[in-house]
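Exercise 4. Each item below gives a protein and its sequence. For each, produce the structure-token representation.

Item: F420-0:gamma-glutamyl ligase (Pseudoflavonifractor capillosus ATCC 29799).
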Amino acid sequence: MGEVAPGDDLAEHIWKAMEASGVTPEQGDLLVVAHKVVSKAEGRVVNMAEVQAGPEAVRLAEETSHTPQLTQLILDESREVYPYHDRGILMSRHRLGWTCANAAIDHSNAPQGQAILLPLDPDESARRLRAALEERTGVSMPVLISDTHGRPLREGIIGIAVGCCGLEAVKNYVGRTDRFGQRLNVSREAVADELCSAASLCMGQADESVPAVLIRGYAYTPAETGTAPLKRKPERELFHPACDKREGGEQL
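Answer:
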């Protein structure tokens, strides 16, 4: 798919890429789209030279490897920030509810001197994209908007869903029984994240230029609850060392 610019019709980009690839959507398919192209189309791209850093950003920048401008963007995009002094990063509780490094702000696959932010409302972005693609294809497909995040105590990044429409993001097995008749009490499967991880294998992380992946054959459960079921409340966090001063974190 070609480069996406602010104001572009992303659905048209994706539809043309489908046609060029010989892909015809069918009922039951679903689409995973990298957040970067969504953010670019929605103008969520920032020229770093135009960012005015405040005193708090300047102070935190001295404690990390970030510039004051990037630090200001992280503060602007976050509800809370936890400096991780020995790693030179800022863990944040993003305004959308995710806990992630550096407020999920990305410089990769962006022009030099620019940064890409998450969409303002990724669930709404997914709904708009689904409607626009349905007009072109005649097929109503669930749409997931993906990003890549790290995981506690594990190396490497995986795809996760930051936007969702049209399918159940979390499958609840609580109350069902396993093959030995034992009742399941806590099993809840993050289906949307798993689908985004599968798509991420096809998208790649460098110069592959594959920001959208169509998945066929997965029997999803229709739903319109967005990504809300994926968001764990802070008081239920199992791993959050950045919030613990004993681990070098300082809550702001």
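Check: Residues 47 and 112 are 9 Å apart (CA to CA).
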